């Protein structure tokens, strides 16, 4: 993301003019490494996920003496990045990870890209070879700034010890303001070892970086007029509303207008699932009502959303009758995929608050929308095409039922993370999200292996909350080593492995689009010629594997044991808990809009195309 992009206003140090340093700042003589740790303490970084190595090693020595920064030693650098993301998404603060040069830094590329796609405030600190060796292909050298330039909001290469404090302050400011995103700070080893002076707060210099948060009043008034004039409006809510802390304002706006609300995968919990105005999640696997509401709308008010391909389907057929009000903190998103009739640049909280006032002013003048006919249609679609599932005929565990019962039996305020695939979609549909920051997932990048380390980060940041990771057996095998980290650091997360013996979503596509040719999607050994895992295979045995990593582990295969097993997991809070749920391998995610097709072609279930009638396109 370029530095001109915009986002929300989280806690951050304020920039100062070059000649504006405070006279009260105390000056200390430290090494660059000590200066780094002191800077992290001063910006409020209370938790760092990391793994030491040669070039970052100087920083790990003073870290040992810090009483304000907790370091959590991960088993893989990717785990550090996803844990920092989970921490940031759960707490609203900047997540921090720290690793060494070369392969340590390149192992962070996936979580950095993931954070960039989902606008997560992240500061990644990497060691670098000594400045004199940069560019020589020295041992464990990698140009991590060059590698990550397309996937960071900004990055820094620090070669002088005296630059460390202001660079850390600038990194946290950039990561947490405007549109949040990842910032990388690459520090040469000799800069960490050199002696320097330390004073706080530092002088920051960020020319050209001035995020716009206050929306233009004229655009707000135009949007309010369109809302009151529309007959079929939809509030299309994206993750930016959660990032901005704007959920209370959103509820006021929705109830004031009476318009239906759709919340994207990244926005679940921004508006209560149980609210009568909520019509579900839009997108490839969204509810029929949400998908169709956007298609039939005459006005879409997009708030902190980016019209990504998973929501729009075939772009040129998306919402053909709708005027567009698009409010986003990042001006680069407005008009990128869909032209906006009323573009609004600003922080979602300020935009929505101003919209509330403008709509109230319209109501005072006697201009109020009448959406009764619209709601008649919406309610009919809701009743006719609810999101649901069938229980397996063979009496085996339904994955949807497993996830639904986990949600129903979890303590209030539980934070859920998910990997990527079928279990992610089922978790978005069958768990009710009533509060923001209770649903964490990899939306933009779709990163397998996200759930366990993200749950670890969320629990580290919110230790008083229960944290469940809903994971697939494919995703779990990518990052399960971080359960060792959880066990050794008293981070008692709970993990539900939705074990169907296959890469479930890929297998679903093979079933639907590749004539049931299951090429390389069976995960367990002993697969028969139909691509179905042989009964009884346990490679690996997730219970034994989890126990070996210090977890309490259970296997559940019988639906009669489901509630008992979940209750047992909820009662254990002194160590991580893993449940291996053996579920039916043929369960599918519905509804579905096939990739590359129009949202008009949404399928409510296999072979079931909704019938909306011929008179609803008027």
Q: How would the blueprint of this fold be written?
A:
Elements: E1 27-31, H1 32-42, E2 47-51, H2 57-63, E3 70-73, H3 77-91, E4 95-99, H4 103-106, H5 109-117, E5 122-128, H6 144-148, E6 154-158, H7 164-176, E7 182-188, H8 189-193, E8 195-199, H9 217-229, E9 233-237, H10 240-243, H11 247-257, E10 261-263, E11 278-280, H12 288-296, E12 299-303, H13 309-312, E13 323-328, E14 342-345, H14 348-364, H15 372-384, H16 399-409, E15 415-418, H17 422-430, E16 439-440, H18 451-461, E17 467-472, H19 473-479, H20 482-488, E18 494-499, H21 504-513, H22 542-548, E19 552-556, H23 562-571, E20 577-582
Parallel strand pairs: 2-3, 2-4, 4-5, 5-7, 6-7, 9-10, 9-12, 10-11, 12-13, 13-14, 15-16, 15-17, 17-18, 18-20, 19-20
Antiparallel strand pairs: 1-8
Helix pairs in contact: 1-2, 1-7, 3-5, 3-18, 9-14, 11-14, 16-17, 16-23
